[in-house]
Amino acid sequence: MTRKEPAKGTAREKVKPSCLAVEVLLEEKIEDVVNFLGSSEVSRSQLYDDILALVERCLIRIALKRTNNVKTSAAAFLGINRNTLRKKIDLLDIQCRD
Asked: Which of 1, 2, 67, 69 has CB atoms 3.0–4.6 Å from 74's, for a disulfide?
């Protein structure tokens, strides 16, 4: 069986070579978390959403810290709209000073 090549324009194809090391590191850490949660009572159907929320929460906190809690700058750092950032801060219950 041969390995299927990714279709043109896939997300994998757009990853910069310098980001591949980061991707490998993230994959290892996320696998550790999944293995840790695997034996607990966490619902498998919630796993994807829970991991995404954790990663988003971490990214937003890092962006806020790097920009001294300036939401406009944090949104620009993340490459998202300021209003999207505000909604995610509320949704993910992230504490930050205004």
From this structure: 67
Q: Which pLDDT value is given to residue 15?
A: 66
Q: What is the pLDDT of residues 46-83, one digit of tens each?
A: 888 888 998 999 999 999 999 999 999 999 999 999 99
Please count the CA atoms within 13 angstroms of the CA of 24 that sit on its side-chain side.
6
What are residue 18's phi and psi, to 5 degrees?
Answer: -70, -20
What is the topology classification, in CATH, of domain 47-98?
Arc Repressor Mutant, subunit A (1.10.10)
Average pLDDT, the chain: 83
Q: Is it the case that residue 13 has pLDDT exceeding 90?
A: no
| Residue environment code for 7-30, b if the CB has 16+ CB neighbours within 10 A, otherwise e | eeeeeeeeeeeeeeeeeeeeeeee
The encoded tokens of residue 78 equal 């993340």
Q: Is 97 exposed, middle or buried (0-12, 13-18, 19+ CB in 10 A)?
A: exposed
